[in-house]
Amino acid sequence: MSQNPPADTTDNPAKSMDELVALCKRRGFIFPASEIYDGINGFWDYGPLGTELKNNLRDAWWNDMVKSPPAGPDGEPLSILGVDSAIIQHPKTWAASGHVEGFNDPMVDDTETKQRFRADQLVGAWIGIGDRPELSAEEREERFFSPDRTIIASTAGEAAQTLLDDKKLLKPLRITSPFRGHLRDPKRILIADIEDPNGNRGQIQLELIPVDDIRNQPDQIPSPYSSKMGVLTEPRQFNLMFRTFVGATSGEDNVAYLRPETAQGIFLNYKNVLDTMRVKVPFGIAQIGKAFRNEVTPRNFIFRSREFEQMEIEWFCPPEDARKWYEFWCEVRKNWWKSIGLTDANLQMREHENDELAHYAKQGCGCFDVEYRFPFTYPGYGELEGVADRTDFDLRQHEEYSGAKLKYFDQERNEHYFPYVIEPSAGLSRGVLALLCEAFTPTPERKGSKYVMNFHPRMAPIQCAVFPLVNKDGMPEVARKLYDDLRRKYAVQFDVKQSIGKRYARMDEGGTPYCFTIDSETLENNTVTWRERDTAAQDRISIDRVAAFLADRIGG
Ligand code: GAP
């Protein structure tokens, strides 16, 4: 494809994931786990800057949802309490929650390459130049020809990016219109126009291949790894929970599971919280913590990993109010992501189709995803958070499996009932990825810095830096004093090494919004140079005003 422009050339501002991943490694945001042993697929380590970024996101969520929660529809502040439950719970938890039975992905193996993929992510690509594009919708529906190629993707954007990377398939072709829509939309076939070097026009069609088609005719479908026919197995259900053993023996009686969602730890403690904290329905319980899923195809950097973190609220409300709270939480959660720097254009709400709903969600009004336009889903969007109506499914199940009485006694109504649950469930790790993608800005025009990470100041891992221009003439001492004053309140970095341009470039890539430089003028009139990350503009400010300057812009 080198001679051809990529898809959506006219309007494709998709950022390069390769460049972002390289920056994350170079600047200490995220490293592959076990890197010296060649890594372990689906696991990632956070470096010093990544840890601060993740902590800032986590703390902002905890502050804005738990310590200082939003006001409800009636203007009264909500009541939300935190818990921190064990990762390993009684194995019956996961039978009751439906995860032992139903938390499966259909898995297909390529018998030659030994690679695996999720059958519900297999996309067929039909490529037609000349005679095939005029096929009627019915003919397409019948799919009497097999796909030219299959791709593993969950959104149209992801499939388009994969196609573009596939030089063998697309070499002489040029995509002249972008794929739009979501692969799971009811109108499943997505079409883009193509042109070959002779000006012949045609189309590429993408369609999610139904799992049943793979089951019924696996030998008719080319492998996404080698394009060979006849090498795929039939789909088999694969449970995503990691199993382990508790105690010294490792028999079936000792099996336990690493939690695949933090939510169940909340349901198990719902009664404890009610009994100890004097709360009344409606109220919420929140938890942030690790979750583990043995994903069949972990990919797209930290987007889908096998160990990740979630930030979940279970909001308990009277059944008849569930719809009101569901709409409330959809609105609150989308706005919250905007408040920490994700732009409106990159966010959308999408309601799940019934065949996508999790086993606990209510048919008909089940789940909205807050979606973010990641570079690898562009121009489509990928899930960042789900807001689900879990009904009273979990409390009923736990009452049945444990025998504990979990109904709520409503004193005003003099009635026992199971509250309904609205669940805003956000990915902390996925949120970090969205912040990284949003902030990542190539700056070819800027001298010194190839990239700027323009994080919202509340999220920035380093909030400001203090530099002596040179490491002599009393400048380091003045700089050190300013640094010591600021670090009590802010995440500050002190750096004396290398040229000032290199130090600024380092801070730009780390996403530090403000730098203060002590120079010869400081020694004369007590002013310092401040430099702003996003514009690289510089000005002077009195050294005594630096703390107030930061308080105005960052808070604190
Ligand atoms: N308690 C509901 C629940 O767990 P989910 O949609 O399966 O719902 C919620 O997960 C969020 O957790 C997702 O929106 C996503 O942000 C994050 N998440 C899920 N699986 C993930 C994975 N394998 N890697 C990273 N984040 C993941």
Tell me briefly what this model is.
The chain has 556 residues and is of the alpha+beta class.
- Gyration radius (Cα, Å) is 27 Å
Mean pLDDT across all amino acids: 90
Number of strands: 28
Shape: globular
Number of helices: 16
Please report which band the strand proportion falls in: under 5%, 5-15%, 15-25%, 25-35%, 35-45% or over 45%: 25-35%
* Cα distance spanning the termini: 51 Å
Task: Report helical residue fraction.
Answer: 25-40%
Ions and ligands = glycyl-adenosine-5'-phosphate
Indicate the low-confidence ranges by residue numbers.
1-12
What does this entry look like structurally?
The chain has 556 residues and is α+β, with helices and mostly antiparallel strands. The protein has 16 helices and 28 strands. The strands form 8 sheets. The chain has a 7-stranded mixed beta sheet with strand order 3-14-15-21-18-17-16, with helices on both faces. α13 links the parallel β24 and β25 (492-494). α2 (48-67) packs across α12 (428-439). The longest helix is centred in the N-terminal third of the chain and has 20 residues, at 48-67. The two termini are 51 Å apart. 40% of the residues are buried. The structure holds glycyl-adenosine-5'-phosphate. Glycyl-adenosine-5'-phosphate (GAP) is lined by residues 261, 263, 293, 295, 304-305, 308, 310, 312, 383-386, 423, 425-427, 429-430.
